[in-house]
Amino acid sequence: MPLPAELSLTPEELDEIMRTSWNMRIATVGPGSRINLTPLWFGWAGGNIYFYCRGQKIANLRRNPLATVLVDRNERFPELQGAMFQGRATVLEDTAAEQADPHLRAAQDQMSDKYAGGHGETRTDYSQRSGRGRHWRWVRFEPARLTTWDNFKLPGLRR
User: Fold this and answer.
1) CA-CA distance, 112 to 94, in Å (whole number)?
2) CATH number of the structural domain spanning residue 109
3) Suppose 97 and one of 33, 92, 125, 156 were both cysteines; which one would form an S-S bond, judging by CB atoms 3.0 to 4.6 Å apart?
4) How many angstroms separate the CA atoms of 105 and 108, rounded?
């Protein structure tokens, strides 16, 4: 049953959460239909989600590109806000694929600003993260279905 439209995030609210939230969680299908759920840093550009990763996530997405991404914030129920995206991920397999993507650079710049100092360094230039072999890759996630919620909009809840 879909959420009532009045409890959903507006496009502006969704954009704000996607640009300021640090973590997303991506669910991919692993070997033997096992779900692999992983938190990652991400960028948001052109209506797509971009992330840089390696390991089981890349192997899973190469085998089955269907995934679900969750971005949410706050802890208390009356304050929960979030977005669940269902869609298809594309592993950008080489530098040519990265350069051909029209929004990757904007996502990389956003990540460089958002995560500045996140690991103790002054700033990481995410556009320089490329070419670290077959295992470290940029991924573009293209949402096909979106569900959002903003519990601040629930009537009658104490905050």
Assistant:
1) 21
2) 2.30.110.10
3) 92
4) 5
CA nearest 72: which of 118, 14, 116? Answer: 14
Residue with tokens 């979106």: 146
Predicted confidence (pLDDT) per residue in 35-92, tens digit = 999 999 999 999 999 999 999 999 999 999 999 999 999 999 899 999 999 999 999 9
Q: Tell me if the pTM is above 0.85.
A: yes
Could you tell me the CA-to-CA distances from 37 to 68, 76, 90, 148, 158 in Å, in that order?
9, 22, 17, 19, 32
Number of domains in the chain: 1
For residue 32, pLDDT over 90 is answered with no
Q: Are 74 and 80 in contact (CB under 8 A)?
A: yes
158 within a domain of the structure (yes/no): no
Stretch (H or E) spanning 52: strand 48-53
- In whole angstroms, give the CA distance from residue 138 to residue 58: 9
- In this structure, which amino acid lies at residue 9? L
Q: How many Å apart are CA 61 and CA 66, to the nearest integer?
A: 7
